[in-house]
Structure of DUF1211 domain-containing membrane protein:
Amino acid sequence: MNKGRLEAFSDGVLAIVITIMVLELKVPVEASFAGLIPSLPLLLGYALSFVYVAIYWNNHHHLLTLASRVTPGVMWANMHLLFWLTLTPFVTEWMGKQSFQPEPIMAYGAVFSLCALAYHILQWQIGITTAHPERFKQAFGRDLKGVVSPVLYLMAIGLAYVSPYLSYGLFLLVALLWIIPDKRLVAVFEASDDGKHDV
Amino acid sequence: MNKGRLEAFSDGVLAIVITIMVLELKVPVEASFAGLIPSLPLLLGYALSFVYVAIYWNNHHHLLTLASRVTPGVMWANMHLLFWLTLTPFVTEWMGKQSFQPEPIMAYGAVFSLCALAYHILQWQIGITTAHPERFKQAFGRDLKGVVSPVLYLMAIGLAYVSPYLSYGLFLLVALLWIIPDKRLVAVFEASDDGKHDV
Amino acid sequence: MNKGRLEAFSDGVLAIVITIMVLELKVPVEASFAGLIPSLPLLLGYALSFVYVAIYWNNHHHLLTLASRVTPGVMWANMHLLFWLTLTPFVTEWMGKQSFQPEPIMAYGAVFSLCALAYHILQWQIGITTAHPERFKQAFGRDLKGVVSPVLYLMAIGLAYVSPYLSYGLFLLVALLWIIPDKRLVAVFEASDDGKHDV
Amino acid sequence: MNKGRLEAFSDGVLAIVITIMVLELKVPVEASFAGLIPSLPLLLGYALSFVYVAIYWNNHHHLLTLASRVTPGVMWANMHLLFWLTLTPFVTEWMGKQSFQPEPIMAYGAVFSLCALAYHILQWQIGITTAHPERFKQAFGRDLKGVVSPVLYLMAIGLAYVSPYLSYGLFLLVALLWIIPDKRLVAVFEASDDGKHDV
C-alpha cells in the first residue's frame, strides 16, 4: 500500500478535526464584548485541543517517515488512532460548555489517553515492520515523554475532583513537553538527511 | 484524466465523511457521566460507520492501483460511490438517535447496500479498462466477500423487525470479514511489487 | 506559482462543498420511514447539486491541464469560481427546505449561473496564458454546451413561477448534457497523450 | 520535516476554514426573496473573509517556496497562524449576525490583526532558516503592505464606534491592496524561475 495516500488521508482527517472544533463556538447573541465571556472556557479548551492535535500531526509525520511498508496492521493501527482523535472535538466541547467541571475533564483526559495508547500501538506496528530498526530504536527507543505523558494524564483525571484547574494545568504541561523540540529526535533525522533533501 | 487527482478528491470526501459524523454527537447538557448515556447508541453507530468508511477507503485504494485509465465511466462510477458514502452520516445519525429501532436500521442497511453496489460498478468499470486484466482477475475474480456481504446486509435488513441487535451484529460481522487481511489480495500486490518500491 | 497546489486547494474546497451539504439533511424525529418524507425534496436537491459539483470538478481538472502558468489572473478567477460554488449548499438547502417553491428555485438557478459565468472567466484567463493555444482552442473553442447551459439556466429561472418541476427538469437536463462524455474533448486529450502516461 | 506535508496540511485547514463559513448562513424560513434580507450582512461578511483567507493562502504559498527547512520554529509559527485563521469564521459570524455593530467589528479586526502578526512571525522564522537569504530579502524586505495593513486594521478597530461602515471599508481596502499583484514579488519569482518550470 502507498504510504503517501495513508499520510494524505490522515492529514485530511486531522485538518478537519482541528478545524471543525471552531463550529462548536457559538457566537454571542448580543453585540457587546461581555457576550463573549460565556465562550471563554470553550475557547480555552479549543486552544488546548488545537495544540494537542498539532502535536499529533507533527509526531505522526516523524513516525511515518520510518514506516517502510503499510501492512494491514499499520493501516488499522492508524485508523484506530484517527478514531480517537475524531472524538476529541466532542470532549472538548463538553469540557468547555460545562466550564471545566470534573467529569467532563475526566472524559477529556480519557479520550486523549486513548489517543496516546493508539499512538503507541501504531508506533509498535511500524517498529516491527520498519526497514531501519536501528534508526527507529534510536529515535523512539528511550521514549521518556511517552512514559511521562500517560502518568500526567492519569494524574489529571484523578485530580479533576480536587481542582479542575490543576487538571487543565497538567494537560498544558503535557502539551509543553511535546512542543519543546526533542533534540535527540532532530539529531536522528538530520543524520539520516545527509546527502538527500526532503526526507 | 489524472488518476492521482481522482484519488485525492476521493480521499478528501472520505476524510470529511468519516469526520463530520462526530458533529452529530450532541454533547450532554449536564456535567455528569450519566449525561453521556443517551449518546451511547449514536457513539456505537458512529464506531461502526467509521470502520465501514475505513474499509471502503482501504479497498478503494487497492482497486485504484489497478486502474490504468480514468475513463468517463470510471470517473462517474467513482462519483456514484461517493454519493452513497456521503449519505452514511445521515443514516448513522438516524439509527443512533432512534436507539436502533427497526426502520432506521433498515435504512442504514439499505444505504450501505447501495454503497456496496456502487463499489461493484466501479470495480466492473475499472476491470474493463485495466491494462493488467490477469492481475485484476486474480485480485478481484473469486470475490467471496463481495458475494457474502450483500447477503448479510439483506439478512440484517430483513431481521431488523425481529431483533435490531441481531442486525447490528450482522453489520459488525461484515466489517470483521473485511478487516481480516485478505491473503490472496496481499499476495497479488506483493508479487506485482517485486523490484519496485511504492505501488 | 505551483499549479499542483492550486489544484489541491480547489479539490479540497470542492470535496468539502459536496460533502457538507449532507449536514443540512436533518434526520427525522421519528423512527418510521414516513418520517423521511419531509426530507425527500432536500435529498432530491442534494442529488442534483452533487452532480453539478462533480461536473465542475471534472471540467476544472480538464481545464487546468492546459494552464501553463498560474498568473494572478488565473489564481483570482479560480477563487471567484470557488466563492460561488461555496454558496451552492446554501441555495440547495433553501430550495429543498421550501419544497421547490419558485423564488428559492430562482436563487438556485442564479447561483449556478454565476458559477457558470465564473467558470468562463477562468477559462478565458487560462486561454490567454496557455502555452498550447491551438490545443486550447480545439478543446474549448466551439463551446456548444457552454452556450446552451446559460440559456437553459435562464429558462429555468424564468419558468420557476410557471412550474417549479419544469425548472428542476431543465437543471437536470443541463447536468445530463455535461455527464455525457464530450467526444471532441476526449479526442484532444488522447491525442496529446501519445507517448506519455498521466496527463 | 517534509515541506510538502506542511503545505498540504495548511491547504487542508484553509480549505475547510474558507468553506465552513457558509454553514453559518442560515437559510430563510420563508420562500420569498424578502427572506434573504436578514442574511445579507452575513453574506457581506462572508465575502470579505473569503477574500482574506484567499489572500493568506496565496501569500502562504509564496512564502513557503522560500522555506528551505521546516524547523520546529517554522512548524509552530505555521500552526500559530492556522490557529488564528480558524477563529475567523467565529468573528465573521458574530459581525454578520449583529449587522456590523461596533464591538463585533472590533473583534473581527482584532482576530485578523493577530493573523497578520502570526504571518509576520512565520515570515521571520522562514527568513532566518532560508537557504536563499538574498532572494528572501528581495521578496519580503521592503514590506510596505505589511506595514500599512496593521495600521489600517488599527484604524478600522478604532473607528468602529464612529462608523462601522468606515471600518468595513478599511478592511476592504486592505484586501484590495493585497489582491493587486505585487510586481516586485512577481519579478523575484519570475527571475528565480528561469530555466526551471514549476517553482
Notes: The CA atoms of residues 144 and 177 of chain A lie 10 Å apart. Residues 3-193 of chain A form one domain.
